[in-house]
Amino acid sequence: MKGIEFKNVKKAYGDTTIIENLNLKIHEGERLILLGPSGCGKSTMLRMIAGFEKITDGDLYMNANMVNEVPSGKRNVAMVFQNYALYPHMTAEENITYGLRRNKVNKQEIKRRLDSVVETLLLEPYLKRKPKDLSGGQRQRVALARAVVKESNFFLLDEPLSNLDAQLRVSARKELMNIHHTFKQTMVYVTHDQIEAMTFGERIALMNKGELQMLDTPENVYNRPVNIFTAKFIGSPPTNIMDMVYDNGKAIIGNQSFTFDTKWVKHIEASNATDFVFGIRPEHLQISKSPLENALKGKVKYVENQGDQYAVFIDMANSEVIAMSNSKDWNTDEVIFVQPMADHIHIFDKATTNSIGYPGV
Amino acid sequence: MKGIEFKNVKKAYGDTTIIENLNLKIHEGERLILLGPSGCGKSTMLRMIAGFEKITDGDLYMNANMVNEVPSGKRNVAMVFQNYALYPHMTAEENITYGLRRNKVNKQEIKRRLDSVVETLLLEPYLKRKPKDLSGGQRQRVALARAVVKESNFFLLDEPLSNLDAQLRVSARKELMNIHHTFKQTMVYVTHDQIEAMTFGERIALMNKGELQMLDTPENVYNRPVNIFTAKFIGSPPTNIMDMVYDNGKAIIGNQSFTFDTKWVKHIEASNATDFVFGIRPEHLQISKSPLENALKGKVKYVENQGDQYAVFIDMANSEVIAMSNSKDWNTDEVIFVQPMADHIHIFDKATTNSIGYPGV
Amino acid sequence: MRTNSFLGILWHTIFILTVFILIFPIIFALGTSFKPLQEVYNNVLNIIPIAPTFDNYIGLFERLPMIQITMNTFTIATVVTIMKMLISFLAAYAFVYFDFKGKKFIYFIFIASIFIPFTVTMIPNYLIMSSWGLADSIFGVILPQISDAIGILLINQTMRSIPFSLIESARIDNISHSRIMIDIILPLIRPQLMSTGIWFFVNSWNEFVWPSLMLKSVDSYTLPLALQMFISAEGGTDLSVAMAVSIVTMIIPLLLYLVFQKYIIGTFTASGIK
Amino acid sequence: MRTNSFLGILWHTIFILTVFILIFPIIFALGTSFKPLQEVYNNVLNIIPIAPTFDNYIGLFERLPMIQITMNTFTIATVVTIMKMLISFLAAYAFVYFDFKGKKFIYFIFIASIFIPFTVTMIPNYLIMSSWGLADSIFGVILPQISDAIGILLINQTMRSIPFSLIESARIDNISHSRIMIDIILPLIRPQLMSTGIWFFVNSWNEFVWPSLMLKSVDSYTLPLALQMFISAEGGTDLSVAMAVSIVTMIIPLLLYLVFQKYIIGTFTASGIK
């Protein structure tokens, strides 16, 4: 296949195994996000693709060629580093063109590519400046430009926005999107920020402790998490997770119960699992001071202002549950009714932590 | 007054003025957030309170005493640094108690405070470890503990969560909140993250280029921004800002018009401004494929997945407008109807960029 | 980073050669010091003595007060090292953590002074020491060696690698500067301090010109002066005894290296050599 | 950071004293070199000559081939410096950017070699140089000075301050290691390289013991050897001429310092001294 493929890849430093056995296909021309908490192996994967880290075992294919022993410079890969890695003694222009000049690309071609990227990224005013005279956002764009001018098939990004402030991230994301629309490279983008992953990724590979947790579209990762880790990692505040006992069409949570609809009842009864975990996102809990049908009762602990909404922290069935609300008028210790939206329930097998799937899907 | 007061404070390094003339009162026992983009002067303000930066002109009062010349160590201030500033050669416990031991606090008292903070912050398992053997979150808690044991009146935090990942931030915020509930210190908290500011602050001081933009509760900063900078800085995606012409009860935006209700008409006509700017948050724009009353027309550019919602980027009246939607079914180049919610409109004076205020407020 | 095979071989060749150049003289000295005098000249580049003998060492200790000479050298090197480290440490701390008027200018003078040949200052120093009655005294040897700005430079560079916020954190906790130096700075830069100190020690240990100017009586001699006696002895060069002196000269630095090995390794592992 | 007044005064006193100790000998040497011989002894600590004279300099240049001697010293110091810098640079690059077998061990040997007294290796080196026919030749003086691991250590430390990602960024762009060294590493560490180089130069410039062993004829002498002639002359010490030699010895390093001042200042402003 074109694109990138990890086949039974293992990575260890001495006795420390970072990645045990990884299989992953990255399609040609897609934007794949490597997402996960720090230490999950996502950066190591990127560095293996770049050729900076040797593969301990297994094979890595790029454009259908096995590249285990191919040095960095021969992989036709462009990369944007987290710290941008701009050469401090060169101007922006020199930084952008350095690789091309040293690889003896002819002058007109260099000029063409430079002009094009300068126009796309609005770098004209900064070309003669050195990195120290550029702001964080400008540096990031120069680093991006330096990678773009290579016109490589593979475009690697190592947390490229993590040093930018919130306002700049939005515009930087748009620029990245433009670049991808223009050049259609295979983009592999490492981040620990789920908003970046959701907004930028065509597919997300969620990693944890060197293992691939889920590989799917942002929608599915968000709406159909395959395990508890995925459900909790994606979404902020995270998915509420509660132990439950299944009893004759009902979820017994603490000493309260929630009645499943028939679809769910069939689905749960068809599963192999014996112990279950109930998951529901904060935005899929409706709360009310007056009784709601098929709702659980909980006690308000406190309310956190999130700007457009309020996160209401609720003491329910011996665990803390968060619900989102447009109102902030919730009093501490007030008893309220909490209703999970039936279409947005997640049920996991407690033993494996895997989702038991969704009815009718 | 008790608390902290900046009176006509100026800060300059040689010829570079960071803060021209700052007046700000921080109440005793409140959680005040210093918020703003990088370079806005917020860290300098914190460092002036800490006594690390000399005040060029004006006076700084703490607990009603002028402290311009009082050295750091005599200000009874505790601080959590952005890089935590843990002593690498000391264990967590030694780090936490170092200041107390050197200031000859008696041993029982040290033990009492240590035990209390260790319990609050769940540090028991880590006391004998050195910083390099702790995770980012654990280090952050040790740094917090070291500040808490001082039991100071003033508690300064310099972007204390910026090195933590999203999941840890939520719990760290909770811990900070607990600490404040217990000790009721005057907390001054520097951040560039608006979510932190909204969730943690009792009041927010929004800074830009060394000037105080707005000082108010998170609710008011969000719902009643006093100027365009505030409106755009708070909220993500940011507030949509469009030039408008007021004409006989209507806002002319591009070649379309929006009819104000009578309250707004009176209010706008009573204002001194001649040119206006129209502001509306993405979550206060209703969009629909079928006509809506008093709506503007726009063309969909693209849709960004934000997890729980979708950001719809719309080409409208020659500018880009963002609206939030629960659906992702918006096609590029489709013409849709965009209806600003009348209760959530912001009108600014174009000349001063200040809000003209709100009707009936 | 991986290295391709050609570069790999090149580096290895360079390294092995360099190591050989560094190691060979020591083995040679050791071998020669156990050779009888005639074998030295007949058998110059053959390292292993054919008929090993302790005569050179026995003769050496009979002819010179070697214990006293070693003690002199040790005292000078130790005092010089401690004083230089102390002054450099204090000065570096001031340069790194304080702002004061004329800081830049004073630092500039210090740096400039590194580039002034010792030969220029030697005789004025000699005259000053003489006028203070310190001629032929090891204290006369010690004093002028103490003012050396290179230590400030080296320690300054190490100290600046400590995040400023550690100091600020201590300052806000009302910790005095002297306590900060002892409790925080010193432990953090100890490995580098050790290496610098050992290097100072060895330099002072090897110093020939200045002690030769100051010290006239054999009882106050240092080891390099003793060595010189056998090299430029009036009756020609007594090579095998000279080698014995060399070996004696080497003992203390070698012991020092072995004792402080842990710290020295620490310095270089801390600096990223795995 | 602000300093309280007591500490302020203390630091200032220490600094002014140190600067004085550093500067005084130079002024003294300059003054004495213009004094007639009798005034030197009658008027030792009075710096300004009562009857200034050029006789010391004129006599010096008549008695010795000073131009030749200066050239010798310059050639030795220059070649030694360039070679040491080159080797150190290459070795440091290998240590920082490559992983190879035995890296730790080799580095360890290098560091250990810094602590071996020069006196130990001196005579073996002398014998090797003699057997290569390099006795009484400036090349014989140059060769053994080149193997000095301190340069590797110093450059290694500076090089490690360059973020690794700069090198990776170049490697992914298919840039060779030699190009990386020239285009990226060299420009970035140039100021530190300059300082190290100047320091090497001055050290070699001052070197006495080793050249005195190797060089026998006045035509191949270096400046420190010339100086020694007037200090330990058989007829006693000719102090005023010796001071004239001192001043001549100082000229080139001083010029060097002035020419490269920009870089030297650069080094120390880059390292945070404002």
TrEMBL record, chains A, B:
It comes from the Bacteria. It holds the Pfam family TOBE_2. GO terms for cellular component: ATP-binding cassette (ABC) transporter complex, substrate-binding subunit-containing. SUPFAM superfamilies: MOP-like, P-loop containing nucleoside triphosphate hydrolases. The keyword Transferase does not apply. Residues 4-234 form the ABC transporter domain. Keywords: ATP-binding, Cell membrane, Membrane, Nucleotide-binding, Translocase, Transport. SMART domains: AAA. InterPro entries: AAA+_ATPase (IPR003593), ABC_transporter-like_ATP-bd (IPR003439), ABC_transporter-like_CS (IPR017871), ABC_transpr_MalK/UgpC-like (IPR047641), Mo/tungstate-bd_C_term_dom (IPR008995), NA-bd_OB-fold (IPR012340), P-loop_NTPase (IPR027417), Transp-assoc_OB_typ2 (IPR013611). Gene3D superfamilies: 2.40.50.100, Nucleic acid-binding proteins, P-loop containing nucleotide triphosphate hydrolases. PANTHER family: MALTODEXTRIN IMPORT ATP-BINDING PROTEIN MSMX (PTHR43875), TREHALOSE IMPORT ATP-BINDING PROTEIN SUGC (PTHR43875:SF15). This is Sn-glycerol 3-phosphate transport system ATP-binding protein. It comes from Oceanobacillus polygoni. The lineage of its organism: Bacteria, Bacillati, Bacillota, Bacilli, Bacillales.
From TrEMBL, chains C, D:
InterPro entries: MetI-like, MetI-like_sf. One of its GO terms (biological process) is transmembrane transport. Residues 70-260 form the ABC transmembrane type-1 domain. It is a multi-pass membrane protein. GO terms for cellular component: plasma membrane. The chain crosses the membrane at residues 7-30, 74-98, 105-126, 138-159, 180-202, 239-260. Its main location: membrane. It is found in: Cell membrane. Keywords: Cell membrane, Membrane, Transmembrane, Transmembrane helix, Transport. Belongs to the binding-protein-dependent transport system permease family. This is Sn-glycerol 3-phosphate transport system permease protein. It comes from Oceanobacillus polygoni.
